[in-house]
Amino acid sequence: MEEISIKREYLKGTLILVAIVLLGLFLNSTIGLFGFVKMLWPQNLIVISIALVLGLCIGFIANSQRLWFFKSVAFILPTLMFLMVIGAWLMLHPDAVGKEWLSPLLQVPAFLAAVYVFLSSGIYVALNVSSFKNRWSSIVLSLVSLVFIFGTVVGKNDYYQLAMRIGSERAIFEANEVDGDEYYQLPFAVKLITSIVDESIESQISKASVRVFNTVEDFEDVELSLDNNFKIKGWVIALSQTQYYGSVADDLVDIDLVFDRWIELKYFSLGFLLIGLILRRRSIKVE
Predict the structure, then answer these.
(1) Quick one: which of 38, 91, 99, 117 has the fewest CB in 10 Å?
(2) Any bridge partners for residue 236, and if so which?
(3) Phi, psi of 14 (to 5 degrees)
(4) Which residues pair with 231 in a beta bridge?
């Protein structure tokens, strides 16, 4: 009987996932235009925190008999797995937002699924906290999965890949999006000192000495190459891989800048998730 009940919960959870995806795809052209759906920083943290806290409050306050289906992780698991698969893809291809086949899913469907999962997980944790000793592995796995989903799916727009063309005459604080015209103000400036051309690889600029400014008086001279980059304030500064000597003036060099707000969170949560799965498997064997 318990096995049949779990299968029914999986089925209900799958139907909810299908409904969320279909509804989200239908609404992409309408509410998908609003800023709150795009989940930009710090809006993404605020919305998801509200959903999680609201779920915890509902679970603690509401009648648990009416929310019995939330006591099983099977009810939430299909949507949770859906977001984790998307999150794993975005972790491998963080610049794929808006470019790949999953672009429609990353709009309203991802927003609705994330809100549903965080709200439902809050209810699940609150309803099972009294039996934490028996369900600790499932609860911990659920929370770590939420952290991973936040860092990859919810925070998908907190990844920036910019391009900058620097010269020796002035320091530059602005960079433009690699595939667009949008400009960003950077918390540092970069100035070219010298560049070295490697004639053996189609006259490509292989090294460049640059000066990176925190302020006018606080700066550091570093050497960039195709194998060596420089990190400052969470940004990675690298020599452009597609730059050739003949494509720009002698006193100009192209560099790439990458910033990922949740890079550490992604890897930490993935590591804890793997550890949690191992512990969960061992606990099941013991039972």
Answers:
(1) 99
(2) 231, 258
(3) -65, -40
(4) 236
The per-residue pLDDT for 40 is: 85
**Two tokens at 80?**
């949770």
The number of beta carbons lying within 10 Å of the beta carbon of residue 163 is 15
pLDDT above 80: residue 91: yes
Tokens of 26: 């239908």
d(CA 88, CA 243): 30
The token pair at 91 is: 């972790």
Q: Give the tokens for residue 273.
A: 């998730």
- Could you report how far apart the first and last alpha carbons of the chain are, in Å? 19
- Report how far residue 282's alpha carbon sits from residue 280's, in angstroms, rounded to the nearest whole number: 5
* CB-CB contact of 121 with 52 (8 Å): yes
Q: In sequence order, what E strands does 133-214 have? A: 159-167, 172-177, 183-198, 204-213
Helix (H, G, I), strand (E, B) or coil at 194: strand
Whether residue 78 is preceded by a cis peptide bond, meaning omega within 30 degrees of 0, is: no
Entry field: residues in the chain: 287
Q: What is the pLDDT of residue 250?
A: 60
Instruction: For residues 236 and 183, give the distance between their C-alpha atoms in angstroms, rounded to a whole number.
Output: 17
- Average per-residue pLDDT in the chain? 83
The residues, ordered by sequence, that sit 6+ positions from 129 with a Cβ below 8 Å of its Cβ are: 139
Using a pLDDT cut of 90, give the percent of the chain over it.
32
Sign of the alpha-carbon torsion through 216, 218, 223, 227: negative
Distances from the Cα of 169 to the Cα of 39, 166, 211, 251, angstroms: 39, 9, 12, 9
CB-based burial label for 219 (10 Å; 0-12, 13-18, 19+): middle
| Reported pTM | 0.82
Residues 34-50, mean pLDDT to the nearest whole number: 87
Contact between 70 and 116 (Cβ < 8 Å): no
